[in-house]
Amino acid sequence: MSDKHEHGHQIGDHLYIHRHTYIHGLAPHVKIIGAFSFLLVAVLTPADQYLSFAGYLVLVLSIIFMAELSIKTVVRRMVVEVPFILFAVLMPFLGRAPYIEISGVTVSQAGLTAGIAILIKSSLGVLVSILLSSTTTVREILHGLAHLKVPALLINIATFMLRYSAVVTDELNRMKTARESRGFIASGPKDWKIVAQAAGALFIRSYERGERVHLAMLSRGFNGEMPRAQHATASTKDWLQVLLLPLSAFFVLLIGFYL
Amino acid sequence: MHIPDGFINVPVSGAAVLVSASAIALALKKSRGSMEQEVAPMAGLTAVFIFAVQMLNFPVAAGTSGHLLGGALAAILVGPWVALLAMTVVISLQAFIFADGGLSAIGLNIFNMGVITVLIGWFTFKFILKFLPKKNSSVVAASAIAAFISVPISALGFVVEYAIGGSGIIDLDKVLGAMLSVHVLIGLGEAAISALTIGAVLATRSDLVYGASRLLPKKDLKIKPVDLR
């Protein structure tokens, strides 16, 4: 939606991949609703409907293609999913009877099904979330949430968080550099005190910055309300096209049932 | 311990959204009033602080490390309501931007890692403090206990959700045992780091520790004569 190329250093800015595609241009609140309703259908799908899951994957991949994102980048970003994968891999071994044998290894059948389903569903969730953050700037996501009637105070808090994240993480990194230049290497619980002192100093510095920011805002006439930028609007056509995603997912689900 | 999509069924995830939303609504209401204008910048900076602190890994043993949840710590530092708002924002942004925790599980994650850690942490802190003398070391001790308790209770929240809305494939006692044993260990780290952090803040700016502000006696400014010879 925005034609200017932003190169800020806020949380998540590095995740946004700038392209001029239809997906990028959609109003953020429409994208959020689309993502949520698609995931709802995916999560509601019974564990053994593999055909439906394959259909969902095709849908997500086609949107990734439409948004001109490279599969390589998307796969690289799926790394956050690793802890879930570990859990899903353990499920066949921890699950209840009946047990089946697959090439000499005894596993729980129900555990296997559930593990695979969790793996698929959480992968779809991660894919959709990556799709959202790669095609929508964090600021747009906040605008979208505000449009969806998320309380203004929460949006304001998130806005401040984004605005000052770089400042505070820089502070944290400076403290880390200082610690390490004094020869500090974290090796075990005996070093917790050092880590905690850093956290304490970070809190005081963050809070004092918060006080200064607040005073600066008051001196510029802040009265508790933030000026809002004009929201992006969505036409009925936009809504229909975005809701095509959860609707086709639902259609895929029905097909999966009858095949 | 972010719950992904598809782990807990939709009715339970939906119920968690309702419960979390009412807790947030209460926090919004409580944090209005006296310091309404201050809430946004302060809670925003608290959110950044929590976000940064969660990146601060503490070494546990043999190359493994854990990180703070930060709910109890935030509650003691800025009060439960502002802390809850800050935690909500942090957890939501993690889901929306970093794919950390499923979008459809956002209510569950806010409940376990925000509502439980903040409220259990805060009320434990207040409760323990009643029995201790009014001084700095009591605040530190109460923080340690509160932070410790908040982590396994948060894990217990997950176990309850799994019991009601999980796949039911793994026996509940196995899930309970695994979650509690791991989180008791993480809780020890959380307790140590939170207490030490509170101690560090108390030492320099005790007025910034919300949990201690009404408790500790106001100190007068002391000017000590210094012999400059």
Summarize the model shown.
The complex is a heterodimer of chains A (259) and B (229). By secondary structure, chain A is mainly alpha-helical.
Word description of this protein:
The complex is a heterodimer of chains A (259) and B (229). In chain A, strand 1 (99-102) and strand 2 form a beta hairpin. Chain A has two domains: 13-145 and 231-258, no CATH class; 150-219, no CATH class. Chain A is mainly alpha-helical and 259 residues long. Chain A is built from ten helices and two strands; from the N terminus they run αααααββααααα. In chain A, 68% of the residues lie in helices and 3% in strands. The longest helix of chain A is centred in the middle third of the chain and has 30 residues, at 152-181. Chain A is flat, with a radius of gyration of 23 Å. The two termini of chain A are 41 Å apart. Chain A has a two-stranded antiparallel sheet. Chain B is mostly helical and 229 residues long. Chain B is 71% helix and 4% strand. Chain B has eight helices and two strands; from the N terminus they run ααββαααααα. In chain B, strand 1 and strand 2 form a beta hairpin.
Radius of gyration of chain B: 19 Å
Task: List the chains of the largest interface with their residue counts.
Answer: A-B, 84 and 73 residues
Query: What number of structural domains do the residues of chain B give?
Result: 1
Let me know the number of strands of chain B: 2
Mean pLDDT of chain B equals: 85
Broad shape of chain B: elongated
Task: List the secondary-structure elements of chain B in sequence, H or E.
Answer: HHEEHHHHHH
Percent range of helical residues of chain B: over 70%
- Structural class from helices and strands of chain B? mainly alpha
CATH topology of chain B: Arp2/3 complex 21 kDa subunit ARPC3
CATH architecture level-2 label of chain B: Orthogonal Bundle
**N-to-C SSE string of chain A, H for helix and E for strand:** HHHHHEEHHHHH
Beta-strand content bin of chain A: under 5%
Poorly predicted spans of chain A: 1-8
The largest beta-sheet of chain A arranges its strands as: 1-2
Largest sheet of chain B: 2 strands, antiparallel
Summarize the amount of helix of chain A as a percent range: 55-70%
| Cα distance spanning the termini of chain A | 41 Å
Largest sheet of chain A, in brief, is: 2 strands, antiparallel
* Total count of helical runs of at least 4 residues of chain A: 10
Report how far the terminal alpha carbons of chain B are from each other. Answer: 59 Å
